[in-house]
Amino acid sequence: MPLALLALAIGAFGIGTTEFVIMGLLPQIADDYGVSIPTAGLLVTGYAIGVVIGAPLMTVLGTRVGRKTVLLVLMGLFVAGNLLSALAPTFGMMLAGRIVASLAHGAFFGIGSVVAADLVAPDRKAGAIATMFTGLTVANVVGVPLGTLIGQAVGWRTTFAVVAGLGVVGLVGIARLVPAMPRPEGARLGRELTAFRNPQVLLAMAMTVLGFGGVFAAITYIAPMMTHVAGYSAGAVTWLLVLFGVGMFLGNLLGGRYADRALMPLLYTTLGGLAVVLALFTVTAHSKILAAVSILLVGALGFATVPPLQKRVLDQASGAPTLASAVNIGAFNLGNALAAWLGGLVIAAGLGYTAPNWVGALLAAAALLLALWSAALERRAPAPDAWCRGRPGRRARPLAPPPLTSPPGEAP
After folding, report:
1. 152: buried, middle or exposed (CB in 10 Å: 19+, 13-18, 0-12)?
2. Per-residue pLDDT for 411 more than 50?
3. Best CA proximity match to 328, nearest among 192, 166, 155
4. Record's superkingdom (predicted)?
5. Which ranges of 88-179 does DSSP label H, i.e. alpha helix?
6. CB 240 within 8 A of CB 224
7. What number is the average pLDDT over the span 371-389?
8. C-alpha angle 81/15/102, rounded to 5°?
9. Which one is predicted more confidently, 215 or 222?
């Protein structure tokens, strides 16, 4: 494994920690600033919106420089945003810090996926992407509970200062370990936008929104579901979320292992399994043991889709992958926001705390249908590069070949 992947994973660990640790610190932050819990919840919403907006925005700005340089700038933004959050004297400044940090999120994972894939041989690309995303999954197992404990013991500001320190470690690692990657020849915004002419890219992003939405329709409301339905104590919810993180970690490894061998069959299996588990979760939520098993499976099946979906976008936008890859990261967060909203609607309608599981099952099933449709279209569609060169049926100018960025000793 190239050491550069470790540097990317450390950056992903810090980003994953800062994204999710806020949920365990909201009461303390609300008390310190004298605001309500719903108002403090804007720190979560603002971050998600920042990811969706920042992913394409920062990537577009990054088309003017090399990918390594962009990654360094993004980690610098991440450090600055978390330091601002740690020192913010007012709630408004705290929100601004969260948004600054979130601007780095989508572009880091999007460009990082392209860089990770370029560091290895073609038949190991999904595994390299999964290695980077391991940092995100480990953050939910280790970073989030540890950050919550630090915040409860010595104050939430310390948690964000520590996360900023992680960002510095990631920045130094990228500077020293990631090889110089000049701006790809022919990289222009117009060229990057041509990737979106390919319906397969759009279908992959729609699968991302719906599939990941299925996961977070249930997980967003896991606390009230587990305390009011399963009978767990409030303190046990933290460990259930750790269990979810373990599932994420295992699923990410599974996706990275098999996506290079059988990408579409893996998507059929994981999305179909996710839909079934979420549907059954409405029943298993009434049992402590079965609820815990369900949470583990939701995390595993949900994150097993991440490497294949990200690789699917890279493959289908092979002539101009950078913007498409980053936008797909924004699609994950769009799915989170959509699912949280829909889950809240069914709870508000009086359908109970398990109702979001049905929403998640329907979203995952819809993603499975899109995967089947995508495969059917692929059997009679033009090659992915054709969409990046121009519309089918028209004569197009040839594009320059991608730079040879594979490490010595490995096939580009």
Report:
1. middle
2. no
3. 192
4. Bacteria
5. 91-118, 125-138, 144-154, 156-177
6. no
7. 69
8. 45
9. 215
Q: Distances in Å between the alpha carbon of 243 and those of 51, 137, 174, 300, 342?
A: 25, 11, 30, 10, 24
394 has pLDDT over 60 = no
Q: Looking only at Cα atoms, what is the longest distance across the chain? A: 65
pLDDT 10s digits, 162-182:
999 999 999 999 999 888 766
Let me know: does 280 contact 294? Beta carbons within 8 Å: yes
Share of the chain above pLDDT 70, in %: 85
Could you give the domains of the chain? 1-186 (1.20.1250.20), 188-389 (1.20.1250.20)
Which phi and psi (to 5°) does residue 135 adopt?
A: -60, -40
What is the identity of the amino acid at 306? Answer: V
Give the single-character DSSP code of 140: I
Convert the pLDDT of each residue in 195-213 to its tens digit.
667 788 888 889 988 988 8
Question: Which residues contact residue 65 at a Cβ distance below 8 angstroms, ignoring those fewer than 6 apart?
Answer: 183
Helices (H) and strands (E) in the chain, counts: 19, 0
DSSP codes joined into one string, 296-347: HHHHHHHHTTHHHHHHHHHHHTTTSHHHHHHHHHHHHHHHHHHHHHHHHHHH
Burial class (CB in 10 A: 0-12, 13-18, 19+), 394: exposed
| pLDDT recorded at residue 410 | 39
Over residues 95-122, the pLDDT tens digits come to: 999 999 988 887 888 788 778 887 888 7
